[in-house]
Amino acid sequence: MSGNSNNGGGPCGACKFLRRKCLNGCVFAPYFDSEQGTAHFAAVHRVFGASNASKLLLRIPSHKRLDAVVSICYEALARVRDPVYGCVGHIFALQQQVVNLQAELAYVRANISIMQRLPPPPPPPPVEAQTPAASVVNLDASSDALASLSNVSVQFDPLQPQDTVSWWNSIDDELEDGDVLALAKEFVARYLPGVRFRPPSPH
User: Which of 52, 67, 133, 161 has the highest Cβ tally under 10 A?
Assistant: First the structure.
């Protein structure tokens, strides 16, 4: 379909389909070319007839004939595809699609309105770091344990080298007598206060 006259010298698509000579001033020549116009005019001739289409175009002003030819061709092709409903079936399908899209749009707008009316969710509670606190507690516990060990060690009176030598010199004679139990009891009483001496059981 074309909006220009047939300048190639051959017949237009309508006259080519009708197998007649394309005369000067043919009403179909500006709109049906010799290539694709033949198929389009075949549908128009099948549905409306060439004579009826020619009379329709002659009653329309020349500046509106192109829109009329487009509408005639669309309706003719639709009627060929769907002989029962023609272009009405296509129009009905498009209208149904518009209705479905409008319903979907209304549903989305309603959801957006509901979401805008809802109060904002509360902020999540702050997450407390448990690992550093646990490490501090463990550190305090270990410090207390070390302090208790140091306190236990303080309770014992450490042996001084000079006292040990003098004490061994003073009891040297007693060792010769073999009174080992008395020596051990005196050692515990002097250097380990609070410790009860228990002699070994005889074998």
Answer: 52
